[in-house]
Specification:
There is one protein chain. By secondary structure, the chain is mostly helical. It folds into four domains: about 130 residues, Tetratricopeptide repeat domain (Serine Threonine Protein Phosphatase 5, Tetratricopeptide repeat); about 50 residues, no CATH class; about 140 residues, Tetratricopeptide repeat domain (Serine Threonine Protein Phosphatase 5, Tetratricopeptide repeat, Alpha Horseshoe); about 160 residues, Serine Threonine Protein Phosphatase 5, Tetratricopeptide repeat (Alpha Horseshoe). α12 packs antiparallel against α13 and α15 runs antiparallel to α16.
Length: about 550
């Protein structure tokens, strides 16, 4: 979990997320096949692993409603919506359930929300019309509990309560009816433990919701509360935010929210750091959608905070909002051009999005901060390939380009990154920089050491064409084709030369302390680590 208060940490537990996803899939399959008991068991297990799984709560609500447990279904749908207020199916199911149990005021309010997702839905409109103007409400506490299973060993209950730390035995017994796996109307200790897991998860998520809901509710359209100048002992908002940040770092995210929430609607309504720290606390509590909302609000108040943009980008990338995440990383570097952590996140994301300009911006920051970074050669190769791509586009169109080509400047930058050398990528860069004689010299040097590599002959041909020596270039192209044909007839495959391989086969000097095999291994590693810029252009 990233520390969204200003420092960056690791990712959440992927194993738990994978387990929950697997349980949701198996539960839905069991439900479709009519095995409601196995389906409910899967959803309950998912809830015990991740109490913030909105889909697990929603599916539990559907099954409990089918089993005539209206109270349990209402609780499940409500928790689903507390975790994810935009869960459209939960709004529709809950509005119909609330009308059926007699909570007409609640049904009308929920129908209005459901119609935002399902405008014109006849059943929801009927609920809205029937309940319009009603003030009749019914709390969940006034609803009857399902009939308990009274056959159990008191010692088993005591053991489970001690193991889990539960204080509400009644809640355990109320839940246990849904965990009678063998349908024998008698609860053994394992069934009680299964029920206890759900009760603990329910208490956990309700505690989180109680702590975060005031924060979430206050995010949109915050009122500006004037502060009278004569008021003494004004709250030190910076100190409060710093204290909350420290609490999060010590593992008390819930306590941090409890500290902040009384002030977010008043004194801290326009205090960006308070909202940023509140978002960090929500992220720690795994309420990432709400954390995004809080940090977005913080960035509206203080768009010059680079770490806020970084943390917002990290959350959005984790939620699959890749384009928005890329924009956030760009904003972070706009505010702090030396923010290497943002660049390191942005560069691979730009590759994934096939955004060459974003990749070049991010990679340039990384190399500037660390000239020995492995991405240096990758960036140089990308620049050369982009220059070559531009050249091919210009060659395919007649007439003058609308603007001056950028390829030569990119090639010059690539050569600066590469430094001195006589490798394939050097030769290609010299061609794009119009240093044709140097390029031809490098290709000829490589041919002197390996005359049977068709790629080298073809590289020399391209350099000669660019230099204007079409006759010799054509001969080199023919030579490359002849070598390929000969290799094919022999049934062998010519290995492509490493673009970083030098044309020098001199013996190493006696003063060198680096073995040949180590150099070769480093070249292979560099080659494998490079991502082709052609991916960006595809």
């Amino acid at each position: 979990m990233d520390d969204y208060t200003g420092n960056e940490l690791g990712n959440p537990n992927d194993d738990v997320a994978n387990q929950v996803e697997s349980l949701l899939t198996s539960g839905e399959e069991a439900s479709r096949s009519g095995d409601a008991k196995s389906a409910l068991s899967a959803f309950n297990k998912a809830i015990s692993l991740d109490p913030s799984s909105d889909m697990a709560w929603f599916n539990r609500g559907v099954l409990l409603e089918a089993q005539q447990d209206a109270r349990g279904a209402r609780q499940a749908f409500q928790i689903c919506l507390d975790v994810n207020p935009n869960h459209a199916p939960a709004t529709a199911n809950l509005c119909i359930l609330l009308e059926r149990i007699g909570d007409e005021l609640g049904a009308y309010n929920m129908a209005m929300k459901a119609l935002e997702f399902y405008p014109g839905h006849p059943s929801i409109i009927d609920v809205k019309n029937r309940c319009s103007g009603s003030v009749i409400s019914k709390s969940i506490d006034s609803m009857p509990q399902v009939e308990q299973i009274n056959a159990f060993d008191e010692q088993d209950v005591t053991t489970v309560v001690e193991e889990t730390g539960l204080s509400d035995v009644q809640a355990l017994l109320d839940e246990a009816i849904h965990h009678d796996a063998d349908d024998n109307q008698q609860l053994d200790i394992e069934e009680l433990r299964s029920a206890a897991e759900v009760v603990v998860a329910t208490e956990d998520i309700q505690d989180r919701i109680e702590a975060t809901q005031p924060v979430i509710d206050s995010i949109p359209d915050l009122p500006v509360v004037p502060i009278e100048p004569e008021i003494e002992n004004v709250l030190d908002l910076d100190a409060m935010a710093a204290q909350a940040k420290e609490m999060i770092q010590q593992g008390d995210a819930k306590g941090a929210l409890e500290l902040l929430k009384p002030h977010l609607k008043t004194e801290a309504s326009k205090h960006a750091q308070s909202w940023l720290v509140a978002g960090g606390a929500m992220a720690k509590l795994e309420l990432e959608e709400h954390a995004i909302s809080a940090i977005e609000h913080a960035q509206k108040l203080d768009p010059a905070n680079p770490k806020g943009w970084y943390n917002l980008g990290t959350l959005k990338q984790r939620q699959g909002m890749l384009e928005e995440a890329s924009t956030c990383y760009a904003n972070a570097l706009r505010e702090d051009p030396s923010y290497v952590r943002a660049a390191q996140k942005w560069a691979p994301l730009a590759m994934e999005l096939k955004d060459p300009q974003a990749y070049l911006s991010a990679a340039t920051v990384i190399v500037a901060s660390n000239p020995d970074s492995p991405i240096r050669v990758e960036l140089a190769t990308t620049l050369v390939e982009l220059a070559e791509g531009e050249s091919r586009v210009l060659e395919s169109h007649s007439g003058l380009p609308p603007t001056l080509p950028e390829g030569p400047e990119m090639a010059i930058t690539a050569l600066e990154l590469l430094g001195d050398g006589e490798t394939q990528i050097h030769a290609r860069a010299h061609t794009m920089a119009s240093n044709h004689m140097e390029s031809v010299k490098i290709w000829k040097g490589m041919i002197q050491t390996d005359r049977n590599n068709p790629e080298t002959w073809r590289g020399l041909a391209k350099a000669l064409f660019a230099a204007g020596d079409n006759t010799t270039a054509e001969k080199c192209s023919v030579k490359a084709s002849e070598i390929e044909a000969e290799l094919t007839n022999r049934g062998t495959t010519q290995q492509v030369t490493n673009p970083l391989e030098t044309n020098s086969h001199d013996e190493p000097s006696s003063s060198s302390s680096v073995p040949d095999n180590q150099l070769q291994n480093e070249q292979i590693v560099n080659q494998q680590s490079m991502m082709s810029a052609n991916e960006l252009l595809s």
